[in-house]
Amino acid sequence: MPYAWLTAPADDVADTARRLLGWRLTANGVTVRISEVKTYFQDPPGCREAHGGGRC
Length: 56
Hints:
By secondary structure, the protein is of the alpha+beta class. Helix content is 14%, strand content 14%.
């Protein structure tokens, strides 16, 4: 099933993130609600938390 947020332009990241809040996702009998999103705009390399970086 196509979702608009999958093809949203990069300059609409903040708006897309806000729209995802409250969505419910279900897989293998477990449902979770999206309660937090993070957006990143051209952070310097290594800045993102996923890469072990701190806040920039």
